[in-house]
Fold these 2 entries.
Entry 1:
Amino acid sequence: MKNIKYILLALISTFAIFSIQSCDVTDVTDVTLQLTIDFDPKFEDRSVPDSSIEVVNLEDYPEYNDNKDDIEDAEILHFNYSINDIKTSDNLPIDSIEFEKVTFYLIPTVTDGGNRIPGQRYKLGEFENLKVSDYYKTAKHIIEVGDDVGKLISEQIKETPYFVFVTEYSALKGENRDNYFDYIDAHVDMVIRVKTSE
Amino acid sequence: MKIIKTVLFLTALTLVLPSLMKAEFNEKGIFEISSDFSAFNSENFKGYTKPLFTTIGQGAQSNLFSVANYNDSYSIGLDISLSSTIIPGSQGTYNAMLPAAFGDTSIMDNAIYKNGQVIRNISGTVEQPTIYGGSSNAIYVVSPVAGGDPADSIYKTIGYNEGNNISTMASLPAIQLVFGLPTQTELRFRYLGAPIDEEMYNHIAVSANQQVDQWFDLFEKDDNMALAIHGSYQFMTLAETIDMNSWAAGVHFSKGFGDGLSVYTGIQLEDLGGTFNVARQNGYQEEFYISGTDELKPFNNVPTELQAQYVAHVAARRDTENSPFEEVRLLKPISFDIETFTNWRFTVGGAYEYGIMEFHLDIGYASQMFLNGGLRLRFKDWANNSEIEN
C-alpha cells in the first residue's frame, strides 16, 4: 500500500509541475515570421573605393504594413549578396574584377519632427577578395549578422520603416585599382525575424 | 501576420474558449482570409499544424476512464479533468514542400543557411519547424540565373513561419456528465459550444465504458480487480471550415487496494480526422480559368453573373502574383485533411475514492506523452430499486 501511495504522490507532483510549466493556447498563437526583403543597391558612375547607399523602406512589403503596429521584436538574421550586372568604363572582363574587400553596413534611422535622421553606422559583415564572377547571380554568399547588430533594427522598426544599407567597395586587386565603374547592379536578399504581439 | 494569427487561432480553437476567436465567414460559412495571405499553402499549413491537431485529438480522447470497476446501479455524476502533453522533439519539425522549380539550376540558384552551413540547390522538401518547433530557415533564391529581370521572376527568397518553442502544452478542462447503468456500464458526455462571428462552434463527445470481467468470471471478488472495454466518438465542427471527428476504442483494467486506493491501466486505439477549409477573399473559381490550365479566361467568356467576381479576383491576384506556390498565386483555398501522429496510447494511473469524490491521475504514453488528472463526483446512486444518498 505504501508503494501505491508513493506512486500516486509522484504522479501528483509530476502533474503539478507539468501543469505549471505548460504553455497555453496564447503561446501557440504567437507568430514569428521570417520576413524576406530584397533590394538592388546600385553603384553608378564612380570610381572605387567608394560606397553605394540604399535606403530600404519596409513599407514596400505587405507583411510589414499589415503588422507594423504590433511588432514586438525584430532582428536581421542574415542576407545574401549577389551581382546582377557590372560594367567598368574600360570594359574589364568580369573574370578579372576582384575587390580587396566589400563591406556592408547598417545605418538605423530615427524620425524627428517628420525628418529622417540617420544614426550611427554598424558593420553587418564583409567579403574579402571578392571575385565578381563568383558572385554573379548566385544565392550562396550569405552573411550571418551578429545578434548585437541584427537586433538594432528592433526598436527603430517600431518608429520608422526606413534603414540605410551601405555597400562599401574597396579598391580592386591588381592593376586598375581605382577603376571607374559605369555601374554595379547588386542584389541583396535579407531575412528579418519579426515577432508580433497583440 | 494578423491573418496567420487568426488562422492559427482557428486551428487552436478546440483548446481555447472559442468565443475569443475573431473570424469572418463568407456567405458559404467558410472562414475567409485576405487575398494577400501568402505565408502558407495547404500542404505546409497541414505539416505546420499537425502536432497541434495531435494535441487536440489526444486531449479529446483523454480521461475516458479511470477505475474499471463499475457499479451495477444507476448513478449520475460529473467529472472535471485537466491534461498536459509533452511534445517530443520529433514533432518540432516537418518536411515543408518547396515550389516545383526548386532544384532546377537552369531556372534558379538557391541556398539554405542552416547551422552556419550553406546548402545549395535544394529541391522537393526541406525541414522546417512546426508550430511547436523553433527557428525556421529561409531559402535564398536568385532567379533567373541568365538574362531577364529578377523583379519579373516568381522565384524569390522564401521564408517560413517559426515555431513557438513549446515543449509542454495544456489543454482545456474537460467537463463530463457521467451516467452509470445497472449493466455495469458508464456513459460520459461532453459538450462545448460557442458562437464565433455568426457561426457556432460545437464539440460533442460521447463515450461508454463497459465492465466485462464478470461475464467471463475472470476474477474473484476478493481480488478487487476489474476489466472493462471503452469507446468514444466525438465531433467538432465550425460551419464549413472545420469538420473533425475523433474516435477511440480500448480496454482498461484496475485493481483496488482498500481504503479507496486503486491503480488502473489501459490501452486504446484512436484517431482524429476531418477537413480544414479556409477560403481566400476573391479566391479561385474554376469558371474563371481555361479548363485544365492556370490561364484566365477572357472576360467575355466568363458567365455574366460571375463577371464582377472575376474582376475582383483578377485584381486580388496582383497581391500574390509573385508567389512561387501556384495555390497561393491562384488564390486557391487552404484546404487539407486533418491528421494526427497518435494512433495508440498506453495509460497507467491511480485513483483515490473518498465519499462522493474520486481523484484520478494518470500518465499516458502516446506520440505526445501526457499527464491527466481530475476529480469525479458521484451525486446520486440508485441500486436495487432503493436510492442511495452519498
Entry 2:
Amino acid sequence: MKRYLWPLAIFVVMLGFLGMGLQLNPRDVPSPLINKPVPSFRLPTLAAPDTLVAPQDLRGQVWLLNVWASWCVACQQEHPVLMDLAKTSAVPLIGLNYKDQRHLALNWLGKHGNPYKTTLFDMDGRVGLDFGVYGVPETYVIDKQGVIRLKFTGPVTPEAVREKLLPLMNELGA
Amino acid sequence: MRVFLMTLLLACVLGAGGVGAQTPTDSQATPLSADPALEARVLKIAEELRCLVCQNETIAASQADLAKDLRQQIREQLTQGRTQPQILEFMSQRYGDFVLYRPPLQLSTVLLWAGPFVLLLVAAGVLLMNIRRRDPSTEPSPLTPAELQRAQRLLDDAGGTP
C-alpha cells in the first residue's frame, strides 16, 4: 500500500507547484532598475519640440513617469485612473510618449484629456529602452534623489494607486 | 484548453501578448544591414536573449516590435565595436537577468543550474538502493534433478513431433 502512496504524494507536490506557478504573473519581471538612478535622457516635450527636459530638471521632488502611446489600447483603460490621480495628487505626473507620432499623440491627449504635467516625446523608443520598457503602459515612481523606487507594468488600477503608489509616494515625502 | 492555447499563440504571434502590454504594430520592420557577417553576429547574440513580450521566444526568433528594436540595438552596438559580453551586460542592466537565456550562476539560480544533477544523483541513489535490496528469494534457483529430468522429457517429446 505504501509504495502506491509515494507516486500520489509526488503528484500532489507537483500539483502544488503547478498551482503556485499559475498564480504568478509572468509579466511581473523584476526590473533591475529599482533603487537605481533614473537613466539619463534629454528629450523634447510633446507640446514644444524645442523644449528639452532632462532628469536633473525634476530633481528634489517625487515624480511619476508614465509610459504611454496613442497606439496602446491598455493606456486608454488606465487613462481615467491617471486623470483622477492628477486631480487629487500634487505629485507631478510626467508622460513618456513611447514610439509614437507627435500629431497622433497630441490628438489622443485632446480626445481623452491630459493628466500629464509634461509629456516627453521618445519617438524612436531609445529612452524607453534605457528604462527597460517592454510593455506599455508602464509607470515608475521616482524619489527626490532621482532614484527609481517602483515600477508598475501594465495599466494602473485604482487599487494599485491606493495600495502601492500613494503609500509609497507618501513615504517618500511627496 | 486547445482554444486557450491557440489564443495564446495568436496573441504572441501578433506581439500583443495580453491586456497589460502592447507594442506598436504599424511600424516597419528594421531594415537588415547589407553585411551578412554582421547579421550573423547579430543573430548569434539575439539567440542568447529572451523577448520579454513573447517570453518563450528569443530576440532572434520573435517578430514583436521590442525584439526588432533590440536586434537593431545589437546591430548598432556591434558596428560601434562592442563585444558580445558588453552587449549582454547592456541588456541585462535594463531588462534584468530574465532577459538572458543563459542565466548567470548566482545564489538565486543555484537550484536552476544544480537541480538536474541533484535529481540525477537522487535517482541513481534510489536505483542503487533498489538493486541492493532486491530479495534473493526471487532469483531463479538451479533446477532440482527431478525438474531437470522432466524438462528433458518435455524437450524430447517436442523433438519427436514435426
